[in-house]
Each structure stands twice: as C-alpha cells, then as structure tokens.
Amino acid sequence: MSKEHHYKTIIKWTGNKGTGTSNYRDYERSHTISVENKPVIEGSSDPAFRGDKTKYNPEEMFLSSLSSCHMLWYLHFCSEAGIIVTDYIDHATGIMEETSTGSGHFTEVTLNPTVTVSEISMIEKATELHHKANEFCFIANSVNFIVKHIPKVLVK
Question: Which of 64, 61, 49, 66 is nearest to 15 (CA)?
C-alpha cells in the first residue's frame, strides 16, 4: 500500500522595479521561497539568465535536493547497518544543457560525498551503502537521468 505525501510552498516574485514585465530587461528575477514556520529563502535566476548571483537559483536548489536526499537515506542506512558516520560533505556537480529554443534540462548530476567513519572495518560497507541510498532517494527516483556517485570514505 502506497502513501501520499503532500507538500506546499509559496513562491513570491519580488523583482518588480515599477514597470512589471514591460521589457525583458526591466524586471529582476528575484523571488522568495517560503514554507510555513521555516526561514524564507531568497531566490533568483542564474546570472546567465539575468539573475542575482547572491541568491539561490532553481538549478542550485535542484542539485541540493538530490544531494541532501541521498545523504539522508545514506545516513539512515549506515545507522541501521552499524556504520558510525562522524562527518559527511558532498561537493555535488550538475550539468544543464540549454537547447536552441532557450529551454533546457539536466543531463548529469554527480554526487561526490566524502564520508568519515569511526573504524577502518566500516569502509567497505560504508561505500556500498551509497548504491542503496540512490535506489531509495525520492528525488533521484524522480529524474530522467542517472545520478552518478563518486564516494570517498575516510577513517577518523
């Protein structure tokens, strides 16, 4: 039996400089992303599309969603397997291809997690669990390309 989970978010455009979208160059791409009882996230488009480089863009948020979903499943499976993770950092990368029409899509995402475990005997299983985390990640299961993984496991 499957369960449905429902999510709500509010996206509010804040980039009206007084004349709305009267011209492509006359408005900012600034917006806020909010969810009840959570801090507001300042967003914009990528600077390549006239966005504010100091704000998060949808492409970065997408990449972050894939990376954090993977991490959360991974930590869950490590905990169940008795693998003690003491540190986790991922330098995720993604490639988005822009088409001749101005549309585009991601063609590749690579997660590069560096995981620190407490004992050398945990390295092999800690490495294997990245595959299982990918199989369970809700976001990875929702994309139409393969999410690659290049994990590194350290002992400390």
Answer: 49
